[in-house]
Every structure is written in C-alpha cells, then in structure tokens.
Write a structure and sequence with these properties.
CATH architecture of the largest domain: Roll
Radius of gyration: 18 Å
GO molecular function, one term: acyl carrier activity
Number of domains: 2
Order of helices and strands: EHHEEEEEHHEEEE
Strand content: 35-45%
Organism: Segatella buccae ATCC 33574
Keywords: Fatty acid biosynthesis, Fatty acid metabolism, Hydrolase, Lipid biosynthesis, Lipid metabolism, Transit peptide
Distance between the termini: 50 Å
Family: Belongs to the acyl-ACP thioesterase family.
Structural class: mainly beta
Protein name: Acyl-ACP thioesterase
Amino acid sequence: MELLSKIGRYDFLAEPFHCDFANRLFMGHLGNHLLNAADFHSNDRGYGMHYLNPNHKTWVLSRLAIEMSEMPKAYDRFTVDTWIDGAMRYFTSRNFAIRGQNGKVYGYGRSIWAMIDTDSRQPTDILAIHDGLIMSYVDTEKPCPIEKSSRVKMDSGAEFMRTIDTYYSDVDVNGHINSVKYIEHILDLFDIDFYGQHHLKRFEIAYVAESHQGDQLNFYRQMTGESEYCVRITKGIKNTDNEAEVVRSKMIFVKD
C-alpha cells in the first residue's frame, strides 16, 4: 500500500445555522468537524471505520481537549489539519490544528482514541491492524502547542444541576451516546446571558464509560477556579448504588 502524507488537511465552512447568537461556531459543531477530520484521515490511510466496522472493530474517543484563541464566525472557511503523534497497543493520540485563511490560527486540539471490539466492547490491539500500519503515520515533529488533557478533579461540593433523558438523536454510529452530544449538554448548563459576557477558551472532556439510549444522565457542576468550571456526568438513578460516572469535563472561560 502506497503511503500518504502523515498530515491530513480538510476544508470546512462555519455554516450560519451552526453558529450561536454571536455568530460564533458552536463548540459542538467544531467538535464534529474535528471528529470528521479524524475519520477522513484514518479511512484514507487504511485503518478507519470503513475497514474496521466489517471486522467488528471501531474507534472510540477517550479524551478531547480543544483550545481556541478565536472561534470561526458564520460563513468563515477554515481547515482542520490532523495527525497522529503517538500509538500504542490500546490507545493512540491525535492532534488537530484549526486554521483560517491567510494563515490565521484559530486554535488546536488534542485527543486520545481507543479501538474496541464491537461485540465485546473491550479494547483491542491497534497494532494488529495491517501489521501495525498506523505506526507509519506517526508524526512526532509537528507541534501542537496546547497542554494535554488534565485530570479533572471534583469533590463533594459539586452542585447537582439537572437530569436529562436520552433519545434516538443522542446515539451515534457506534450505538452509544454521541461524544459531541455530551459537549452540547454540558455547555447548556450555562445560560445565554453568561455566554453574552464570556467566551469559551478551553474545553476538556474525558469519557469514562458508555451510556446508551434510554439512560438518564445526571449533571453536576463545580466552580474550580476563576472562570473555570468542572462537570461530572453520571447515569442511573441519582444517589443510588446504580449511579455510575460516565464523563468528566473542564472548561475555562474568558470574559468578553
């Protein structure tokens, strides 16, 4: 198989109805663009969903950090560069650079992915795919100048915010609650007046366990620093032995 470039570049548009009241691209839609870029990149190189799914395997997102100096505005055209900077047996790390026209840099992303068996839902050996083909695409030279995801720390002081039900439109191609849907639900914990005075600079999310259509999700929020908030999501009935953590997230806002 002829090797392609290690870095993939994909063009996107900030569609107006994917933007908020301030004409800024929603973080959730940006997240979708990053995940699409990752999918395009891996499929083009032979270890993506097109190859994996018929072989009862798939990629699942484990961690994602996005840090933006500015968000694309409605009708802005931008590119997403994506590349792998490390691969091990069960996890691989993938970076992103979001750029506008004339070399403008909007921001960067870092992510961690696992490959799982779709029957057992357990991790499976990434390096067994095409005799470790993914290692031919590891690029350790291209910089990604943002911090890696941190460990989200919360304590018993977290405030319960709400419980939501999950439905058909929350579920993705892997049969569990969509990674980006969690992002949207988390950001909905802040009202429109808050976003009128702040913009989101950095967003981190760690996926701890799967949840599925019909699960009830409980949201807990805690202010952990100046303009810094952490969120924990659980599934199951609140305050019972059946309540289990599924997601942790951290956000850093900047006042406008």
